[in-house]
Amino acid sequence: MSIRLKVFLFTVWFLIFLLLLRTVKRKKADIRFVLPWLLLDIALAGVTAFPGILSAFCRMFGIETPSNMLFFFALVFLGMIVFSLSLSLSRQNAEIRELTQRLALREQEERKAEQRQKPEHGPDREPKGEKSKGEKLP
Amino acid sequence: MVESDRTRAGSENRILKKLVIIPAYNEEKSILNLFRELREQAPDFDIIAVNDGSEDGTLRLCRENGIPVLDLAVNLGIGGAMQTGYRYAALNGYEIAVQVDGDGQHDPTFLREMLKKLLSENADMVIGSRFLEGKGYQSTALRRWGIRYLSGLIRLVTGIRITDPTSGFRMVNRRLIERFASDYPQDYPEPESVAGLLRQGGKAVEIPVRMRERGSGSSSIGPGASIYYPLKMTAAILLERMRRQ
Q1: What is the least distance, in Å, from the CA of A65 to any CA of chain B?
Q2: pLDDT, tens digit, for every residue of B72-98?
Q3: Min CA distance, A82 vs chain B (Å)?
């Protein structure tokens, strides 16, 4: 690897590192979600500094060329990150559902209680809660 | 009115609390008509509408007409909306709950028969089926084919034949109200919940109904879903079998 290429790559990894840190600092992203990307960035810098690591790993796993190995591990790593996002999304989906349902149930309770307190109040009120349902239907 | 909320049921002479749950997403054109029909055909049922984040006047129409409504702040889809209705039913001590879609495709005249069937067969769920007698709106050919496939799949997994597993027109007893309140499938919940019920030894029976073509609004199953839907249902029903053995 030429010095020129190394310098170029280090600059890229460094800029990405700064960018990642900035998003955390500005609270645009949670450190928990940025951490994998930070680790990936550091690992890439490590490989750039010591390219010998790659060929050593290749021999270890019996993979023919370093580029194949990189593709494989990149896929696995990105897959892991995306899947963890799927899990997180599912959990949040369930949380939003629970909150929405509770809010709707509570609002309805409050409305019913309110209408019981002030009977015969306005044309669109129902005097006895839901018991009088539909009495003003066309 | 207060008296008619209660009904003597079957030979047990027991008073049953019954609830119609109306999931409604943008149904301002059809929902008033449905309220009127319910008042005429099923005055002994209480009503709760679930406004699933409609962008039209659905919520306003419910309020103006004194229909109690659970207003979901964001759109949860049919599964989340129905679960809210079941939670309401569970909280308020209802013993029978029936889903009647806000688009008017479910005819309230059948509620009486469904109730009779539920009580006489001591079933957990009564499903209004379009296909038992083949009368009324029969859906499109593609969907009928999909429904037949689901029906076959459920039979394979549970050994029981349900002719219309996608029907949302279904009445359930207290046991299922409680179960659905705590756990209900989210998208396309109907076939999955029937399969789950049957596999756990519950009893689901069907009665023939005539369904109407939706007066307005749009199906929760869009065109892009026609490939996704059968795949998802197959996975869901097979996974259901593996879960909670």
Answers
A1: 39
A2: 999 999 999 999 999 999 999 999 999
A3: 20
